[in-house]
Amino acid sequence: MKMMRRYIHINVRARLWPMAWGMMFCVGCMTLASCSSDSDVPDETPDNQLRLASVTRATDIDDGYVIQEDSKLWLALTSGSGSVPDSKGIYTLENTAWKGGVTVKEAKQYYIYGVMSPTGAITDGAVPTCTITSGDFSEGATLTIKGQPTMVEEGLVPCVVVGVRGVTDRDDASTNWDVNEGSFGYMGILKKGQDNAQLLLDRLYAALFFSFTIDEDYGNLRTIKLKTMTMTAAAGTKATVDLTVRLEARSNGTSPIASVSATAVESAGALGSITMFDNSAGMDITDLTAEKQAVATNEGGKIKSACFAPGVADGLILTCVYNVYDKAGNDLGKRTAVNSLSNVVTTGSLLHGQRRPIVLKVTPTYLYILSDEDLDNPTIKIQ
Description:
The chain contains 4 helices and 25 strands. It has 383 residues and is mainly β. Strands 2, 3, 4, 5, 6, 7, 8, 9, 13, 14 and 15 form an 11-stranded antiparallel beta sheet that branches. Strands 1, 12, 16, 21, 24 and 25 form a 6-stranded mixed beta sheet that branches. Strand 5 and strand 6 (87-94) form a beta hairpin. The longest helix is centred in the last third of the chain and has 9 residues, at 290-298. It is elongated.
């Protein structure tokens, strides 16, 4: 099983807007590749209001994702002795700049918690999307995040802040990423240019990523072109969930996420589903093998990964629609293969931040080819 955990390193500064938030947020602890973007565009924000200034992504997975416009990041500054945030606010990515902010009210010790939703599904007001509670914020917090999708592609997974590092020097903030998971403390300064913080974000969903293989002898006789590929939740699983995340402060650098649970929003209408592939012209299965898919992923991906909220893994259904062609190029018709993922992944077997590969094999109807009918009606099964 391969972890998909990544870190997002965010400088939060008093005077600067960011440029594009380059590659997708990350989660976890692997730091094998990175990219960054910075901007020196001034604004008129008060010196005590924190601003996102730059993002550096460090990851072992290069999926070519660019953060979407209208993504939102909700942050709360809390005191150890309080039960509600001292201040909170939402940043929104608009025209490559993060707009909005959170106010540092006093020069004192804070604890920063937060949620990011690349789908933009975060609001504040009379019925806020995010709420936070704790008896002592220095020890951790419980976050409730309402109205999140049951299933999304990998670049759209909601995540939470899992580590904080305060810095006063701008150059140090852009070059030194020594941020520990489980540390949420931040010292407010209220001095021009010195209210800086770095944040780590961790994903809340698990992911499946797909590739194909084809029986070699059969591949010499028929061409299979994939048209659509979808994953659907079990009957009754709605498209929207409310998430509850329990964070516990750690001193040993381990993940502070103690638990993540999802509650279905019963009034959310449609069942949870995601389309990982949709191409009316079809894609030759031989171009979707694990080796070629890995290369394609570096260029933006051919088959999207499918991510799902905790608690909805049971009963997942994978549906592939494909056409069969003979080697003269004649279309022999559309076929559909339906596979249950119950033997591959169940609730508890795949945790937040983890990725699991799924290989689908195309074979003729029978082990030995007996007739044209067997050639023309291949099956697709999980290997």
